[in-house]
From TrEMBL:
Key words, A-Z: Acetylation, ATP-binding, Ligase, Nucleotide-binding
Species per Swiss-Prot/TrEMBL record: Oceanobacillus halophilus
GO cellular component, one term: cytosol
Start and end residues of each AMP-binding enzyme C-terminal domain: 470-548
UniProt GO MF annotations: acetate-CoA ligase activity; ATP binding
InterPro entries the record matches: AMP-bd_C (IPR025110), AMP-bd_C_sf (IPR045851), AMP-binding_CS (IPR020845), AMP-dep_synth/lig_dom (IPR000873), ANL_N_sf (IPR042099)
Pfam families hit by this protein: AMP-binding (PF00501), AMP-binding_C (PF13193)
Residue stretches spanning the membrane: none
Stated name of the protein: acetate--CoA ligase
Lineage: Bacteria, Bacillati, Bacillota, Bacilli, Bacillales
Length: 571
């Protein structure tokens, strides 16, 4: 494999020496950044919001720049703090207490963030749901969490089940709604009447804050439960990885229905008191570049699927915009194809920094720090305070360059504290003191981690292990290929053969010659055994809302099997 390295760049970053950071590091040392170190009282909403609103120099700073095709709004720390006080009062009036689950089923908007902080201020547990969920997905989550209150919009209310939710007491409607039964709360009306003073509910570090539902390879989605303690790691990675500085304008493109949209769309930027851009609605490449240009975004956290879309629309587009404010780009959610890193250097003249973590881990664990050289295709190295390794199925550590299960030494601040209502599922993540990720990877001699696939996705063809990501990366280097999803298809002789689903770039048509050319391209560029024996052209590749290729779904289609839970499928 091509091992070109992208060296560290001076100037743009607050470079911190990796080894020095790791030396004698203790999470306890990070406490000094928070008021609870002296008061003993904690609440994420205080540290991320009210603290700035109380600071005479910060209070009138723009906390949130919200925009969608129909609306643009700038909200200061003070105003967001006051508004969330109002919402906290509403929740309290309706009897919400510490630990109650309050769910949000609504698009990104200033109201979303107001309500979110209001929930934390009463010490309830927030459960954000993707706005594109259909009724069954909403029901599963509200039932399992036994949510007491749901906040939604009139449009989305149609997808909120009205039966079999005995715990759901009230539905807050953000917008016009005619039904005046006392089940509904009119958001705008009550916000006007509520006081903007609120005594925040102080909690313990280990008290619950957030419930994110995520799909595994089997069964119903599981509720991953996070606590206020996580803020230490959000703050720390905000400094080391996001490289946030006082005057940054930061944009995380993720929806808060996904953990990236809360940990890094809410907590990390606001713990650092930076201006946070939120863009609602669907995007075109023009939209993305416009957003970066218009708000002079300096730090940008996005995902490979978005970057690949930009790549497919060409580098020339980038030069139509003034992106001179942009100084730092990061990616998460899926393997970052080396081709995209190379493209980023040309298109933005910037390194794209991959970061690896999971809903369960709550915050970044393996990253490309600005002060580390980038090895394209690698996820980077563990952050300070984190020990990562590769283990075999018995939980033994493996030497460098051997593929196995990526595992993390138990016990870091942002780690999930339970799986809601499912202790045995929670237990199943751990072995010999390691948190076992379910991702296959290897570590090179220098401590860089290389992602190979979800363990359940790894292809075994004629005894050769092939990571679908490697093949997908090669496929999209072909000039005709926009996106690719690769699976192993059972084969009587070879165990599995490689089947690729692809979409084509504009201007290309499916012909037998083109498919053969693509096959040869992989065969000569990667290896014969990695070349897909079958290629099928699609209009789109099924992905989760966080941008992961749903290989499981491709496989079910291929084998004519039931498709199982597809509630996180991007429609
Ligand atoms: C934050 C988030 C977790 C799974 C994880 C892995 C994949 C995430 C990645 C990556 C390769 C990266 N993943 N980041 N794979 N390189 N930089 O994505 O959480 O939605 O729970 O997904 O995503 O397979 O196990 P979540």
């Amino acid at each position: 494999m091509d091992m070109k390295v992208v060296p560290v760049r001076e100037g743009n970053y607050n470079l911190k020496d990796y080894e020095k950071l790791r030396e004698n590091f203790s999470w306890d040392d990070m406490k000094k950044y928070f008021s609870w170190d002296t008061t003993g009282k904690v609440n994420m909403a205080y540290e991320a919001l009210d603290r700035h609103a109380e600071d005479s120099e910060k209070k009138n700073k723009i906390a949130l720049i919200y925009s969608d095709p129909y609306r643009e709004e700038k909200v200061t720390f003070k105003d967001l703090s006051k508004a969330s006080n109002r919402f906290a009062n509403i929740l309290k009036d309706y009897g919400v207490e510490k630990g109650d689950r309050v769910f949000l089923f609504m698009p990104r908007s200033p109201e979303f963030y107001t309500a979110f902080f209001g929930i934390l201020k009463v010490a309830a547990v927030a459960g954000p749901l993707f706005e594109a969920f259909m009724e069954q997905a909403v029901r599963d989550r509200l039932q399992d969490s036994e949510a007491k209150i749901l906040i939604t919009t009139p449009e989305l209310l149609k997808r909120v089940p009205q039966e079999n939710l005995p715990n759901l007491e009230k539905i807050v409607i953000v917008g016009d709604h005619i039904d005046d039964s006392d089940k509904y709360i009119d958001y705008y009306k009550e916000m006007e009447e509520a006081s903007d003073e609120f005594d925040i509910e102080w909690v313990d570090l280990e008290d619950g804050m957030l419930l994110h539902y995520t799909s595994g390879s089997t069964g119903k989605p599981k509720g991953v439960y996070h606590v206020h303690h996580a803020m230490i790691q959000h703050y720390a990675t905000g400094e080391w990885v996001l490289d946030l500085k006082e005057d940054d304008t930061y944009w995380c493109t993720a929806d808060p229905g996904w953990v990236t949209g809360t940990s890094y769309g809410i907590f990390a930027p606001w713990l650092h008191g930076v201006t946070n851009v939120v863009r609602g609605g669907r995007f075109t490449p023009e939209d993305w570049y416009n957003t970066l240009e218009k708000y002079e975004v300096s730090v940008w956290y996005t995902a490979p699927t978005a970057l690949r879309l930009l790549v497919s629309h060409g580098e020339e587009k980038v030069s139509n915009y003034n992106l001179s404010s942009l100084r730092h780009i990061m990616s998460v959610g899926e393997p970052l194809n080396p081709e995209v890193v190379t493209w980023g250097l040309k298109a933005f003249n910037l390194r794209i920094h991959d970061t690896w973590w999971m809903t369960e881990t709550g915050a970044q664990l393996i990253v490309n720090l600005p002060s580390l050289e980038i090895r394209p295709g690698s996820m980077g190295k563990p952050i300070p305070g984190i020990e990562a390794t590769i283990i075999d199925n018995e939980g033994n550590e493996l030497p460098p360059n051997q593929m196995g299960n990526l595992a993390i030494k138990e016990g870091w601040p942002a780690m999930m504290r339970k799986i809601w209502n499912n202790p045995s599922k929670y237990e199943s993540y751990f072995m010999n003191g390691w948190y076992v990720s379910g991702d296959s990877a290897y570590k090179d001699e220098d401590g860089y981690f290389w992602f190979q696939g979800r363990l359940d996705d790894v292809i075994n063809t004629s005894g050769e292990r092939v990571g679908p990501f490697e093949v997908e990366s090669k496929l999209i280097e072909h000039k005709a290929v926009a996106e690719a999803g690769v699976i192993g298809k059972p084969h009587p002789e070879r165990g599995e053969i490689i089947k690729a689903f692809i979409t084509l770039n504009e201007g290309y048509e499916e012909t037998p010659e083109l498919l053969e050319d693509i096959r040869t391209f992989v065969k000569t560029g990667l290896s014969a055994h990695a070349a897909p024996r079958e290629i099928e052209v699609k209009d789109s590749i099924p992905k989760t809302r966080s941008g992961k290729i749903m290989r499981r779904l491709l496989k079910s289609w291929e084998l004519g099997l039931p498709t199982g839970d597809t509630s996180t499928l991007e429609k």
